[in-house]
Amino acid sequence: MNKHQTINKEPKYINPYLGGVLLGLLVLVTVLITGRGLGASGAIKSTVVTTAHVFTPEQAESNAYMKKFISDDHSPMYTWLVFETIGIFLGGLLSGIVFGRVKKLRTEHSPRITSKTRLIFALIGGMLFGIGSQFGRGCTSGAALSGTATFALGGAVVMFAIFGTGYAVAYFFRKLWI
Amino acid sequence: MCPLIPNGIIGTGWDFVIALILGIAFGFILEASGFSSSRNIVGVFYGYNFVVLRVFFTALIVAMVGLLYFSYFGWLDLSKIFILPTYLTPMIVGGVIMGIGFIMGGFCPGTSFTAVAIGKLDGIVFTIGLYLGIFVFSETFPLFGDFYSSGDLGNMTITEAFGIPASWVALAFTVVALAAFWGTMLIEKRVRKNMTEYKF
Questions:
Q1: Is A20 an 8 Å CB contact of chain B?
Q2: What is the mean pLDDT of residues A16-40?
Q3: Where are the domains of chain A?
């Protein structure tokens, strides 16, 4: 009973098709203005390169991958995707405030696993997503959504690979979720 | 006329202001759709919540068809938009790694940022994971640098790869999306009936 009450008090999410239309129009407007789509993983890459460059400048400059993103005239943080990602955080916060979902720190997990298990898998999952996004030239936002929407072959490849693999391995991780 | 910034209609000085505004809209839509919750997101793989499929596919076909209309009316020069380059094998491998990360972590990068914004510890830990993953990738890059840049097909579009006109590609995605919306609605109803741990 108590559980039902708390669930009933949970604020509703918007209709998914409305969310989809809004997101599609946003991708469209983004391409119409900037000539390219949205992204997310790129900002973390910029942060990695920036911190490495600040703490161990010589190593960062000699790193075969990081040196591609280091230039003399501006910091790797001074890029489009970093500002857009600050926006993602602010927009998420704004929606959370509007719908009453901003609360103190908590971990969401299936009742069948502990918070600790959830956090360990969140860390591993994040690491894998980070590594995969570098091979994929983008994540779900930049490659799968914006890439496919602009008819890029690579975008569709990444989209089918992510979701196809998700379905293929879902069975083995079912205890984490259901 | 469009894209506005590459065509010099909006000055590049506005780049970061526009980035911030578009990002805010992006984050708001993701959070409002329920993507700040990993259990909502992962539902797409277990059949109890297809919100990811609905939002993603709707967004995809709206953006695709919208771009084609703007191009058709001559308002958008499609040759001036960025086409993500295709590196075939690395992108398949990357997608597979991301797929496993998706199931284990329950977020993708964009959605994890909105989870951080509303105070989800699992979102924060996932984001730290992203940072560590990309750091590990950079440090070990020499080991697989050749593989990383293999299979380079350039800025290839689906249209060029398969010889199908863009309008037919958009139509195919639309038909598949509509069929998926209908099919998953039926699946979701059946799965939810048998689930007790997860309330909606």
A1: yes
A2: 97
A3: 1-103, 107-178
